[in-house]
Structure formats: C-alpha cells, structure tokens
C-alpha cells in the first residue's frame, strides 16, 4: 500500500493574463487548503471558478502562480489524474494505455491485467479506445490512474456527460476501488450529490477570486451514502443556499 | 469484406481499361509519326526486353534506386527533425522561417550544380544535393504536424511522468504519422525525379545517365523504355511498401 500523503496549499496569487478584450482575471488570492492524508476531499463550485486550475497547479502542469504547494509524507508523490475527458491514446489498446505510466516489467503487466479484471473490463484489453463507449473510456482512464498505485488521486469531473445509470456505476466502482486501495483524493465537481455520496470532506468554493465559503465534514455511513433520501437531507441541511 | 474485394476488382478493371486505351492511343499516334521521334509500344517493348536481357536495365535501375533510398532517408531524417523543432519552438520558427522559404524556392538545378562544384563530382555530392532539395518540403509538412500536437495528451504524459522517450514514441510520433506519410508520398515522387537530373549532370551510371546518353544518340526508344520501367518500379514501391505500411499504422482508426 502506498504511503499516505497529505497536502498543504497556499496560493498567494493566481492570475490569468488578459486575453484579447477580456480583462485580467484573478482566480486565487490568498487561498489556503490543508488536506489530510487519506481524505477524500471534494471541491464543489460552479464552472469557471478555478477548480481545474487548482488541480493543474497541484499536478505541476500549471506553475505560473505565486505561492506554495507542499506534500506531506512524500515530497514527490505519485499522482494519478483523471481528467474531464478520458485523454487516452487512441492509437494504443486499452492495456497499452494503462501500461504507459508503468515500468515495463512482467509484474506491472500483471497488475494492469488484474486491475482490468477487478474493474470488469478484462475483455476490452486489446481494444482501441475509440471503439468503446464514453463510460468505458472513463473507466479505462480510472484504471490508468489506479494502476500506478498513486499517493494522490486528482479527479476533474470524471463523471460528466454520462447518463445517470453509467455515472452511478462508475461512482460505485470508484468507492469500491478506494476501499481496496486507499489514497488521498481531490475530487472536483459542480454536482453536490456527487460530493455527498463520496467525499469525507466537502469544500464549497465561491466568488472571484475564489475562496472557501463552507468546509463540511461528511459523516455519513456507507449505507446512508447509497440512500437518495439521506443524500437529499444532507444536501438540504448543509448546501441549500450554495447551489 | 466481400464487398470491399469486389470494389477493389472493379477498380482494377477500370485501371486496366484505362491503360489499354492509353497504349492504343500511343500506337495510333506512333503510326502517324516518324518512328525515330515517337516509337510505338512494340518497339519500346523490344528495347525494354533487350535492356532487361543484357542486364543493363536492372543494374541501372538498381543504382538509381540505391541513390533514391539514400537521399530519401537522409532528407526524411533531417527534414523531420528540423520540422518538428520549428513546429514546437515559436522562436526557432520565427528565426528560421526565412531560411526555409529561401531553400524552398531555390531551383533544384542550382543546388545540384553548387553541390558538384563545392564537393566535386562524387556520389556524396549527388546524394547531398538531392537531400537538400527535399529537406525543406519535409520540414514544412512536419512543422504543421508539430504545431497540431494535442496538448491534452502532452499534459497527460507530463502528469504521469512517462519520460521523454515514451512521450516521443507513444504520444508524439503517432500523431505525426499522417504528416510523415504525406511527406514520404510527395517525397518519393520528388526525389526520384531529382535523382535522374543529378545522374544526368554528374554521374556515370543510373537511369538518369542512360537517358542522358540516349539523348545524345537521339534514341527515344531507350528514353521511353527506361522511363516506363522506372515509373513501374516506383508504383510497386507504393503498392507493396507504402500502402501496407499505412494500413498497419491506421489500424486503430474507427
């Protein structure tokens, strides 16, 4: 099992330079967030508020900001990133896509094949991604993230543009995977039901520059999370005004 | 599958018909003209068989193909490297774009003559001259490919820390394949024509040399025989190497 890694984020300033006629946009100004090792933190907020920007800064894709992002436990943690689109290589098979970030060893191959079997996709391993449905492609992207046994898992609205049944199946799969392979998760979404169903902590972002308006510990049991009524009740109690 | 093979055989039938009509038109035109100026298909065919029997056809085509191959590989390698670099680095492109335009517009003949003057009438000079003619075209095509690389996939490669070599092999090169194949196609067509000129001007062997000698002797039949044989060889390369290659590379497409 991977060592648990926490996160300390302090963004002093993140600004998007003006594009053409659009004015300068200040995304973060003195934003702070501490994530405990093993937590499932959901960042909840409307589109365009800077959630994806934050994930990109954490993953190291975006370095154009002032502030610091530090990892506790592991200075250079292994990161799995499930993007808003699957971002699979269309010219590589499902298995090759999952093997891409792994060392080229027989052991890694076995891990990947077992993971596909666990996720109910053993029959797709030699298929090219574009022949799969979007739901299946997202499943492969999830498998790729889990295959490298990450210390931190970043997820950017990984269930959007799926029908409810498929999205629900993927949510269940994610919860199941996390039970077997615990990892610190940062999950970005604009869907509060998504957040309540899976997160141990929900941070509601609002405003421009963005700041946390709510920081809620979700103490629901596994059973309650599967109960639509309990989710709606929780939503009414804590998140009523924000959505 | 059946449908596809049926379509392919209709296609072949049309091609065969088209060639038969062309040969017939050639025969008709030849029967009205001086056989020294325009020999008919029969006479050219006889010249072809004679050249084939004494072996000179195959040696000369072999020599020319070797030169085509050497300069083609050289041009594709250097041109691709330049093109990808220009496509990825804006500053490089800004600086070298005028150079590229200069070399694109420099007549092949000028490059060939300068290479022979500076490097002597040698094999190396011949191959370099052909490569220099082709490099700018390859660079321009691959530059487009370099510009069009998918940013999402490059980000994925960077987050997953797959390293430079894997990024090149699994993320970048597959995206450049269509551009590369485009450069190969137009390259093959251009390179063999320039090789003939290079051979005509400064080599003592190869198809270009033979055609040059035939020109001195006013031997149109030999000129046509060699030209047709070489066109056939280039078409074989297209059918037997390029097309199967492309089909393999495009397997993943829906």
Question: What's the gyration radius of chain A in Å?
Answer: 18 Å
**Which strand-content bin applies to the residues of chain B?**
under 5%
Tell me the distance between the termini of chain A: 37 Å
What is the number of beta strands of chain A? Answer: 9
The H-and-E topology of chain A, N to C, reads as EEEHEEHHHEHEHEEHH
Q: Which geometry of chain B do the CA atoms define?
A: globular
| CATH topology label of chain B | MetI-like fold
User: In the CATH hierarchy, what is the superfamily of the largest domain in chain A?
Assistant: P-loop containing nucleotide triphosphate hydrolases
| Radius of gyration over C-alpha positions of chain B, nearest whole angstrom | 22 Å
Strand-residue proportion of chain A: 25-35%
- Shape by Cα distribution of chain A: globular
Order of H and E elements of chain B: HHHHHHHHHH
Order of strands across the main sheet of chain A: 5-6-7-3-8-9
Structural class of chain B: mainly alpha
Based on DSSP secondary structure assignment, what is the total number of beta strands of chain B? 0
What helical percentage do the residues of chain B reach? over 70%
Provide an overview of this structure.
The complex is a heterodimer of chains A (243) and B (254). Helix content of chain A is 33%, strand content 26%. Chain A is of the alpha/beta class and 243 residues long. Chain A folds into two domains: 1-17 and 24-78 and 151-243, P-loop containing nucleotide triphosphate hydrolases (Rossmann fold, 3-Layer(aba) Sandwich), CATH 3.40.50; 89-148, no CATH class. In chain A, the strands form two sheets. Chain A has a six-stranded mixed β-sheet, with helices on both faces. A three-stranded antiparallel β-sheet of chain A has the order 2-1-4, covered by helices on one side. In chain A, strand 6, helix 5 (164-180) and strand 7 (184-189) form a beta-alpha-beta unit. In chain A, helix 6 (192-198) crosses helix 8 (228-238). Chain A is globular. Chain A starts with 5 loop residues before the first strand and ends in a 5-residue tail after the last helix. Chain B has 254 residues and is mostly helical. Chain B has a single domain (40-249), classed as MetI-like fold (Orthogonal Bundle), CATH 1.10.3720.10. In chain B, 86% of the residues lie in helices and 0% in strands. Chain B contains ten helices and no strands. Chain B has helices at 2-31, 41-53, 56-88, 90-105, 108-119, 123-147, 151-159, 163-202, 207-216, 220-249. The longest helix of chain B has 40 residues, at 163-202. Chain B starts with a helix and ends in a 5-residue tail after the last helix. The mean pLDDT of chain B is 92. The A-B interface holds A 59-61, 79-81, 83, 85, 87, 89-92, 96, 100-101, 128, 130-131, 144, 148 and B 152-153, 155-156, 158-162, 166, 170-171, 174, 251-254.
């Amino acid at each position: 099992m991977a060592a648990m890694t926490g996160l300390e984020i302090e963004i002093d300033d993140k600004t998007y330079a003006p594009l053409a006629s659009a004015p300068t946009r200040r995304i973060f100004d003195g934003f702070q967030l501490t994530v405990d090792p093993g937590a499932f933190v959901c960042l909840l907020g409307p589109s365009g508020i800077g959630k994806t920007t934050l994930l990109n800064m954490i993953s190291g894709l975006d370095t154009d900001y002032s502030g610091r992002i530090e990892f506790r436990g592991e200075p250079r943690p292994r990161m799995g990133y499930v993007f808003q689109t699957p971002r699979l290589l269309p010219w590589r098979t499902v298995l090759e896509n999952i093997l891409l970030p792994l060392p080229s060893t027989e052991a890694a191959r076995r891990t990947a094949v077992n993971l596909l079997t666990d996720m109910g996709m053993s029959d797709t391993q030699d298929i090219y991604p574009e022949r799969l449905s979007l739901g299946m492609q997202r499943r492969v992207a999830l498998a790729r993230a889990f295959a490298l046994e990450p210390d931190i898992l970043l997820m950017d609205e990984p269930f959007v543009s799926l029908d409810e049944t498929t999205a629900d199946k993927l949510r269940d799969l994610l919860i199941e995977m996390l039970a077997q392979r615990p990892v610190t998760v940062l999950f970005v979404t604009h869907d509060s039901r998504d957040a309540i169903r899976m997160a141990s902590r929900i941070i509601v972002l609002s405003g421009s520059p963005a700041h946390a308006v709510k920081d809620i510990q979700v103490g629901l049991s596994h059973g309650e999370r599967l109960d639509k009524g309990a989710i709606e009740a929780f939503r009414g109690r804590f998140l009523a005004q924000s959505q | 599958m059946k449908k596809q093979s049926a379509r392919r055989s209709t296609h072949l039938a049309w091609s065969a018909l088209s060639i038969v009509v062309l040969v017939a038109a050639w025969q008709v035109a030849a029967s009205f003209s001086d056989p020294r100026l325009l020999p008919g298909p029969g006479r050219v065919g006889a010249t072809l068989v004679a050249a084939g029997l004494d072996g000179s056809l195959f040696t000369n085509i072999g020599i020319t193909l070797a030169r085509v191959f050497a300069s083609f590989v050289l041009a594709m390698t250097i041109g691709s490297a330049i093109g990808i670099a220009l496509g990825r680095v804006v500053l490089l492109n800004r600086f070298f774009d005028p150079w590229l335009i200069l070399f694109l517009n420099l007549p092949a003949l000028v490059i060939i003559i300068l290479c022979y003057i500076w490097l002597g009438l040698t094999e190396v000079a011949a191959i370099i001259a052909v490569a220099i003619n082709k490099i700018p075209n390859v660079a321009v095509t691959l530059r487009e490919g370099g510009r069009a690389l998918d940013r999402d996939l490059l980000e994925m490669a960077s987050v997953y820390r797959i390293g430079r070599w894997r990024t090149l092999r699994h993320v970048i090169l597959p995206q450049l394949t269509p551009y590369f194949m485009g450069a190969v196609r137009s390259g093959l067509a251009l390179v063999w024509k320039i090789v003939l000129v290079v051979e005509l001007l400064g080599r003592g062997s190869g198809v270009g040399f033979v055609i040059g000698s035939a020109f001195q002797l006013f031997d149109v039949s030999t000129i046509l025989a060699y030209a047709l044989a070489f066109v056939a060889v280039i078409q074989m390369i297209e059918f037997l190497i390029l097309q199967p290659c492309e089909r393999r590379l495009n397997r993943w497409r829906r």
